[in-house]
Design brief:
- The protein is of the alpha+beta class and 385 residues long.
- Helix content is 34%, strand content 25%.
- The protein has nine helices and 17 strands.
- A seven-stranded mixed sheet has the order 9-17-14-10-13-12-11, with helices on one face. A four-stranded mixed sheet has the order 5-15-16-8. A two-stranded antiparallel ribbon has the order 1-2.
- α1 (3-23) packs antiparallel against α2.
């Protein structure tokens, strides 16, 4: 723990103790005097606070002389960490920072000092630019996770007319579960040293945005398409509407897809599709000649279809035989388990000959649908449809 910060916190604790001692003198409005023992204890704390103040001022003067910058104790721990992280990227030398006992800084195996506050900003950015990740139900646990769900697809509790003294047949659904494990993913971005040496270049925002963008490409691909033997994502969606054509989408098929989702889950529903699918749907009109897909300034992504926002995912294939072309639903029905929060490391030597610094981000994740009723997919006609 940094000596200066430690002394400041100890001094604050002593001052609080002194204030409590003075407050205790008020007994229902009647002020009493310190006892001899209390006065001695108060004086001792006061003398200690004065000694600490002198030492703190000395350390501040020394620190200011060492780094040619006055110390601002009013800065938040996050601001201090961000400044030091940028300094480390530029110089390669970890900057001495004042951290509390609950510091967010950790030292990686290669000696790089990594603040978790930067990783948290990357997660926030990922959630912002990837709606499917942001809307999914997330579980941050280690090991395997078993999520139970009630399945009534082959049987359900029913009520029928009956006569006295006749036997009935019991019906019920099944209590099943999905199991999420963890698969490791990695994203690397490189930052030019020439850019970093430009004092006007916002290194922190660049790193956060670039790492988040790289992560989102992988996350969207896995959550939507999945990978055989690894993350399943939406690839096992059970509610499927099959298009009559291998390449064309009709308005009726989109209506059928939307109506597949029960009304109870429509409030938070969105459309997810490729640019090619959006281009095709933009040309569809209703019986009155009005376009179905509209530009909508109130929608987060600029378009709405049947009153719901439209998100474009580059990982979705254009409409083709047997391909999943459009997804619709409330994507909180997708369960995402992150065994390991995004953590980052700085690679200075690896890209030294390229005059660049590498930033590597690691994420351990798994995802499966936990509520089939919330999500539906339009697949094009084809052998695998």
């Amino acid at each position: 723990m940094n000596k200066l910060k430690e002394l400041i916190e100890k001094r604050s604790a002593l001052i609080s103790e002194m204030e409590e001692m003075v407050s205790a003198l008020d007994n229902d409005g009647e002020i009493r005097a310190f006892t001899d023992e209390e006065q001695s204890a108060y004086d001792g704390k006061k003398a200690e606070v004065e000694r600490m103040t002198k030492t703190i001022n000395t350390l501040r003067e020394q620190r200011s002389a060492d780094i040619n910058e006055p110390v601002n104790d009013d800065k938040s721990a996050e601001e201090i960490e961000e400044r030091a992280f940028v300094e480390y990227l530029r110089s390669g030398k970890p900057m001495e920072v004042e951290t509390r006992a609950d510091s967010n800084w950790t030292t990686a195996a290669n000696g790089a000092v990594i603040p978790s506050s930067i990783a948290n900003k990357i997660i926030e950015k990922i959630t912002e630019i990837s709606p499917i990740y942001g809307l999914a139900t997330k579980y941050n646990v280690g090991g395997s996770l078993s999520i139970p769900y009630y399945d009534e697809s082959t049987g359900a509790v029913t009520m029928t007319y009956a006569d006295e003294f006749t036997e009935g047949e019991a019906t019920s659904g099944k209590l099943l579960s999905i199991t999420l494990t963890g698969f490791l993913g990695r994203a690397i971005c490189k930052v030019s040293k020439k850019l970093m040496n430009n004092s006007n270049f916002d290194i922190l925002s660049f790193v956060i945005n670039k790492v988040a963008e790289a992560c989102v490409k992988w996350i969207d691909e896995q959550l939507i398409n999945g990978t055989s033997g690894k993350i399943e994502g939406l690839s096992a969606a059970k509610q499927v509407v099959t298009a009559a054509s291998a390449t064309a989408i009709t308005a009726d098929e989109l209506m059928d897809l939307q109506d597949t989702i029960p009304d109870a889950y429509q409030a938070g529903a969105i459309w997810i599709m490729s640019r090619a699918a959006r281009s095709a749907i933009r040309k569809l009109k209703d019986s009155d000649g009005n376009y179905l897909l509209n530009k909508d300034v109130t929608s987060k992504w600029g378009y709405s279809l049947f009153g719901k926002p439209v998100y474009i995912a580059d990982c979705i294939a254009k409409p083709a035989a047997g391909k999943a072309a459009v997804y619709y639903g409330d994507f909180s029905g997708l369960a995402v388990k992150t065994s390991e929060a995004v953590n980052i490391e700085v690679l200075r030597e690896k890209y030294a000959e390229q005059h660049a610094v590498g930033i590597v981000a690691w994420l351990e994740m798994d995802a499966k649908i936990e509520n089939d009723e919330k999500i539906a997919v339009l697949k094009m006609k084809g052998a695998s449809a």
